[in-house]
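hi!! sorry for the late reply, been swamped w classes. u asked for the two structures so here they r. pasted raw, havent cleaned anything up. first the sequence of the first protein and right below it the tokens
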Amino acid sequence: MSNAAATAAMNRWTGDAMQKRVAGRYAAERRFRFFGLAAVSLSVAFLAFLLINMAWKGLGGFTQTETKLVIDFPRSDLLLDPATLRGPQAEESVASAGLEGVLEKAAVAQFGEGGGKLFGGASARALGKQLIADPTLLGRKAELWLPVSSKADVAAKHDGDPDIERLLAKAETKSAFNSGFLTSSDATDPSEVGVWGALKGSFLTILVTMGLAFPIGVLAALYLEEFATRNRLTDLIEVSINNLAAVPSIIFGLLGLAVFLNFMHLPRSAPLVGGFTLALMTFPVIVIAGRNAIKSVPPSIRDAALGVGASKMQVVFHHVLPLAFPGIMTGSIIGMARALGETAPLLMIGMRAFIATPPSGITEPATVLPMQIFLWSDEVDRGFVEKTSAAIIVLLVFMLLMNGLAIYLRNKFERRW
């Protein structure tokens, strides 16, 4: 058989050689699909393990153990005037009334020696709230459901102190939703801690971050892509922006420390400084994503707008920017998600401080959820373990809500052509 005949036989679709080649291609496609499906399944498995592990450890942080305690207020040593419980100074009155001593005495009388271990700071705070809600309790003997101390809560949920477990065996207990975890701030007692202060600090910080990085990043992307002339200066700026996107986050923290704190003397540990620092880190991501989104707008859109007499500025802001906005929002979502989970830059500007009061503005001391999780994970008290996991769940939910809002805005402004 001549070479031409052999080549024709190999290229014949019904020939054995061609059938083997086709079968090999199909086998390669099946292998690719298998490895792709395996990679996706492995990723989903790791994600499911992470979520299940966090939920298993953290859901207990949203509940607290309560026990019934009988308190005879007329016979107690509590010196508290019912009239002070009706004014604006009610919380200060109960805070200085010595409720811990009342709880200690009542617990010892009901559970015996060591009964005071069942109650702590959260118990005194809950008792104060009940007294404010019903001042008539001061004139009678009452049965009250109060949250137990951190050690007693750990003993009720896990393996704890045997002495405390014996005390709990004598008590009537129940599990209730821990609303204080979502409405309180940081504290030294695990039974009193909450995420509201850190959650508010995160919101204020990310508000400053996006309020600064988003408009500046979008305008920079528009200028570099639509108005800037191609020369060495613009090439240097583009290279610098691309390099900044890969710089470690702690470098931005050092920059924020040097510029915003040491030079500008802005308030330390404030959402304003944290937002400025994270904006420096988020800015390059928005610029790069914005430029790519602007490039994806077809040139025919620009030509059509110029053809009907629109100016360059009108073309960019009335036609190009609206069409590129969904892509810009995608880059902003990525930058915001990165900023929400950062701790290294905020460590350098002092946002790891103990903040017991939620901030009321962007210039007041605050902390953020990732930093709060970092601080709690370093505590030795076992009560902080489930609080740390519960705070991680709150952070994940917060990130999902923020990203969901950004995705909604992106889809709302999306235009098709």
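now the second protein. again sequence first, tokens right under
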Amino acid sequence: MQDCGIVFMTAPNPDEAGRIARALVEKRLAACVQIHPEIRSLYWWEGRVCDETEVLFTAKTTAACFNELVEEVKRLHSYSVPEIVFVPIAAASPDYQRWIAAVTK
């Protein structure tokens, strides 16, 4: 197992998600980023419940790239506290894991 994982992130719109996704792939912090348009998010923020439309985007990466990925997302993101959650992949084909490891830093 290569310590591969999926990073879940949200953005306020497709343009911002696309800009961040492109930077992550170009800087080899993610092997692939998929953008899932229009999700509805309900959450607590600044003392109230918010109900917003957002864009979910997911990156395939390695644990070794995660800290640098976090810094890049925070640098480019408009949210003061963006969602950046790494979930380890429990099982995947060895070829897929090797690909993720090969194309990331």
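hope this helps!! also noticed smth abt the second:
The radius of gyration is 14 Å.
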